[in-house]
Amino acid sequence: MVMACKVINKRRHVGLQQLSSFAKTGRTFLGPVKSSKFIIDEESHESVLISSPVRLLESLDLTSAVGQLLNEAVQAQNSTYGTGTNTLLFFVGAWSSAAEECLHLGVPIPVIVSVMSEGLSSCNEEVVSLQVPVHNLFDHVDNTNTFSGLETPSVNLYPFLQIPSDTGLIQKEHELKDVSQTMTIYSLSGRPVKSCKLFRSQAKVEADKNVLQTLQTLINSRHANTSCRKSVLIHSRHFNSTDNNQWISNPGGFLEQPGAATSKTHSCNDLVELAVGLSHGDHSSMKLVEAAVRLQYQNTCMQQGNGTTAFTFDVSRIFTCCLPGVPETYTCVCPGYITLVSISSTTLIKELKDQPVRVVLVQGDLTENYCHLGFNKSTNIKTVLESMKVNQDSAEELWANHVLQILIQFNVHLVLVQGNVSEHLNEKCMYSKRLVIGSVNGSVMQAFAEATGAIQVAYITQVNEDCVGNGVYVTFWKSIPLDIVDKKNRMAILLKTEGINLVTAVLTGPVTAQMQTKEDRFWTCAYRLYYALKEQKVFLGGGAVEFLCLSHLRIIEEKSLKKGNHACSWRLRHSSSWLASSLALYRPTVLKRLANGWHRYLSTLMYNTASYSSEFEAGTFVQQHLQKAIDSGSPSSYILNEYSELNSGVFNSGISSKLEQIPRVYDTVTPKIEAWRRALDLVLLVLQTDSEIVTGHGHTQLGSQESEGILFL
Amino acid sequence: MSRLEAKKPSVCESKPLTSERVRATLSVLKGIVTSCYGPSGRLKQLHNGAGGHVCTTSQSSALLHSLSVTHPVLKILTASMQNHVSCFSDCGLFVAILCCNLIENVQGIDLAPTTIIELNKLLLSLCTDYLKSEACACRIPVDFSSTQILLCLVQSILTSKPACMLTRKEVDHISALVLRAFLLTIPEKAGDHIILGKSIIVPLKGQRVIDSTVLPGMLIETSEVQLIRMLPIKKSGALKVALFCVSLSGDFSDTGEGTLAVSYGVSLENAVLDQLVNLGRQLVRDHIDLVMCQKVIHPSLKQFLSSHQVIAIDRIGVTLMEPLSKMTGAQPIGSLGSVSPRSYGSVKDLRSAEFGSKRFFHLIPNEVTVSSLLLCNRNDTAWDELKLTCQTALHVLQLTIKEPFVFLGGGCTETHLAAYVRHKTLNEPGSILKHDGCTQTELQLIAEAFCSALESLAGSLEHDGEILTDRKYGHFWSVQSDSPAVVNWPDLLSRCGCGLHSSQEELSWSFLRSTHHPFVPQNCLPCEAANSASDLTVDCFTAKLSGLQVAVETANLILDLAYVIEDTN
To answer: Which of A40, A376, B94, B362 has its CA 20 to 30 A from that of B112?
Structure first.
């Protein structure tokens, strides 16, 4: 084994440069209007359409150490919170260039680390003032929206059109939809390079100013003619009521007093309002999530028989079922479990329909040679035949017959299997009118176990009367099932039982390449709403928190410039070191660079939403408001006062800038703060790294151009 | 067909230390360990260069894990470092840096190796005698009636590892948790011999550090929600526990070599399963409430047990077996045959707990000597580093109970010790040399090398600045590297490395690397003053003392090498 040690140059920090160049690739994902990317494999000519950092990093070559760390950070954020990866990736880029600038200016590394992390902590304390409590959301949930059984209303999902759907826009939508359908042909014709261009152009449709303006005029005219205005916010008491401006004119401080009579208007206690605010432009996905929450809520109410009991939105009981190739109008959420089965079971489903069936839940595989985990089959055991009684049937046949006997004995017509299912057994069961479904998610099994009283078993031989569940209904998902058949000849069926706390979102779309994106977007919205409900608070969003951080940092930067040496407001652990004295010297420099990260975030956000022709122009707008906010003395009250104006300019997509009643935009609290923290942690981790130690056979693999500056041990 | 090949002759290298290659690799190694040292140490990315896991660290134990050195001289060094770390957890880098410094500093000195070694030994015993004596001015006795010093100790360890990525608030939180986890391992009823329990670190990656917590008893992760729903068991009194270390999965892996012939129709699986169910019957008869197995329990046995209201937890893993056995008093059962009732143990209660996305069984013992530290950090790299650091801290606390002292940290002990040695060798050389054959000049030379090795070790703590020492206590003071020559030191310096002294105390300073005029380092250590100072940086007494010895002895060993003979076959 040879070990090499590579010293990373001090002034020109390679790691930081790598970080910022990786992060640059994800800039277009920021904000409500995302431009998708095509990633094409030169060798296999395979391509994927992506629009999230997680998918981007999955497709990039990240063999470098820094790339790995970045991927690890993004994955960790995604698996913990399911949202915030865009923010994370952007700030990794912004702050790694900030740290590099500081290095160029000769700021010692410990000072950068110290000031940056204290600066972020200080911002985290500051943004508490923009938290909006989320209370009593379900007091107002009216039951007019009840979705019953199979007649679940469909919610349209147009991927690239993220303005509230409205009658006035349908014409426009149709045009867009036509475009997307012609596109399908291209993408299926196996010429991804060509379709790549087309997709981009489609993605850019919204960025196209002309289109925007027409949309805007549409909205405006609609607004003028209020009689025909049918807003999505119809349930919101705030947006239709006249006291809408009251919270705006009421400066600062009120947000901290939940429970007071006035606070009711300032907290968010309407599910629709919350959902729209958290949708970040993706209204169609959020509508689905919202509907899913309502279904869960109704189920909880029915189970407990009382609407006021505590309800928690359980995101682990939500599933997605993707049906590529099926028209978008079929997108919807349904109570129960929707899954795909082969169309050969059509007659079987018809037979099982309309009657409760008994169910068995199998945790392992349902195959003859399956053994539970931890069971090691001995290889050196041979079965010897003593007599000539050779059985004609194979072992599998014997086993399948045995399984069938058990199913018949307990009158079981439905078997849900977590693992694989033997093809042979499947056929056998079909003949005897029994449905076996494999690869069922563990949480689905759990939900069915709870609702039906079934006990999960590892082997079918374990089944006894106690293990069998009752009262499951199997139906086709739609009344004309053969209309909805995916490419693998599978159709969707629905499994339901009384009181099951399970909701499936069916995602459909004509373009197969978009399914992944659609699913990702659905989950992003689901997690956003989940955290808002779980934490019972949200941030005033759309850039408000970022703007506050920016102005807060500018203020403390100015303060520390004035106070000079005595500005040691932050107690430091290494108070003994020279750090204490040099901190005061460098603090303004480092804080300025840290604040620039937020500045860049805001201007990129605005540029991406296409309301500004350049990032520079957007930056000027931010700068103007920043100066006003600082001059006002209290940026947080400035933001609250000017929210509607800022919202239209900075925080909102700019589409509805002429509207007086702008829906408030919200952000999740912990996922956002954590994304910042993870981004900074990663940057500081790389900043403090001075060498790479390559273990193993690195010696032979390192190219000659790379081996410069490498030391061997 | 076997093939014989002539053996290659062994390679013999004389005076390995004079070789340019050895010097170069030694200095690379020194560069790596030196740059890692201290709270502002630089981190290293360890990876295999082919997309494997990346470990970002500045800890000796993590470095040693993946450092593979080729030359025997380096192997001696890393081996003794490894040995030290496995015994004391702390001060691994200290050993390596000091050892490298000692070797490097005597390179230019024209003395026989034996003389150097002899004198190094004398100086070492001078140091250890002083550090162990009552007169020692750089150690503080630990007052167990307050948590002050112990907290400082844990905080010092946590801050010395920057790759943990903790803010000040998080350091405070984690150090309080570590201390609490440690205190829970001390039995309440202490006899003559105290047997400390164990703290188990339970991973919870991806969560905020501030979400970490400590629980008395043990946490066992489980994915089986169904079992959790059986809780709580309504039962007065303790729960009876059976603990298995043998697999109950129903397989027969010990069939030995050769093939086993079985007649058709005979199922070995069923035979084993029957045996398992019999075992289950016995457990039910013996009124067992909780069955735990290191390995896997057969689903049928689990089903049988749960139908009799016995909770079965499997796949506990080998690491938890020993503390589980200790905590419950159960003897791990190693056979499927009849079980002796004497091997059963008990727990006070069994609950369920949920943290992040994980579910746990929480076992609460009758007498708490086992604690679980549920440790969170945002990503894998930082979590691994934090885990190692917390383990070090827990170990250091154990060592501190044995020898209730701490050293002043932040480089102050090293600079103070150097000042003491310098003063002693100049003023009382006779008492050091005693009857040995070395001259005073030789002593002076080697003492200078020894002291500057200690001082540059302290200097390694500072990566961006320069070091001063005061001429009263001999403590460590750091200053920015390009400070003007004539300055008002008290304004520029704030506190010394360990935090005991302030720059306002009318001291005089000199650069550590400048020429030295020996002085008598004073003892200013009223215990009260030390205990009242809230933010002291302190080091583990036992680990540092042993580290000093290991470093000097390893350096002596390497200096003593005359030949390296390598078998190249």
So the answer is: B94
User: What is the structure's pLDDT at B253?
Assistant: 61
CATH superfamily, domain A320-371+393-527, is GroEL (3.50.7.10)
**CATH number 3.50.7.10 is the correct assignment for the domain at B218-254+264-367:** yes
Measured in degrees and rounded to the nearest 5, phi and psi for residue B438 equal -90, 150
* Distance, CA of B24 to CA of B26 (rounded, Å): 5
pLDDT, average across residues A248-272:
46
CATH superfamily of A4-133+540-699: GroEL-like equatorial domain (1.10.560.10)
The answer to whether the CB atoms of A674 and B378 lie below 8 A apart is: yes
Contacts of A571 in chain B (CB under 8 A): 168
Sheet holding B139-141, edge to edge: B139-141, B405-408, B538-540
Mutation test of the interface with chain B: which of A121, A463, A576, choosing the one with the most B Cβ atoms within 10 A?
A576
How far is Cα A603 from Cα A624, in angstroms, rounded to an integer? 12
What ipTM was assigned to the predicted interfaces of this complex? Answer: 0.92
pLDDT at A266: 60
For residue A45, what pLDDT band results from cuts at 50, 70 and 90? confident
Give B 406-425 residues with CB within 8 A of chain A: 410
A427 in contact with chain B, both atoms CB, cutoff 8 A: no
User: DSSP string spanning A159-199?
Assistant: TT--SPP-GGGHHHHHHHHHHHHHHHHHHHTT-HHHHHHHH
The Cα–Cα gap between A155 and A171 comes to 18
Cite the residue boundaries of each domain of chain A with CATH code 1.10.560.10: 4-133+540-699
The CA-based angle B147-B150-B151, given to 5 degrees, is 80
Give one word for A324, left, alpha or beta, with left for phi > 0 and alpha for psi -120 to 50.
beta
pLDDT for position A575: 52
| B280 contacts on A by Cβ (under 8 Å) | none
CA of B136 vs chain A CAs: smallest distance (Å): 22
Confidence of residue A173 (pLDDT cuts 50, 70, 90): very low
Minimum mean pLDDT among A27-36, B15-24, B60-69: which range?
A: A27-36
Q: In one letter, which amino acid is B305? A: L
A62, B51: Cβ pair inside 8 Å?
Answer: yes
Output the pTM of the full model. 0.86
Asked if A377 has any chain B CB less than 8 Å from its own CB, the reply is yes
Minimum-distance CB partner of B168 among A381, A456, A573: A573
Residue A658 has pLDDT above 80, yes or no: no
pLDDT of residue B175: 96
The token pair at A288 is 């689905």
pLDDT tens digits, one per residue of B447-458: 999 999 999 999
The answer to whether the bond into B232 is cis (omega within 30° of 0) is: yes
Domain ranges of chain B: 12-37+69-137+408-566, 218-254+264-367
A72, A681, A696 member nearest B48 (Cβ): A696
Strands B311-313 and A414-417: unpaired
Query: What's the CA gap between B48 and A517, in Å, rounded?
Result: 33
Contacts of A691 in chain B (CB under 8 A): 32, 35, 42, 44-45
Contacts of A179-183 with CB under 8 Å at 24 or more apart are A179/A205, A180/A510, A180/A511, A181/A510, A183/A511
* DSSP tag of A386: -
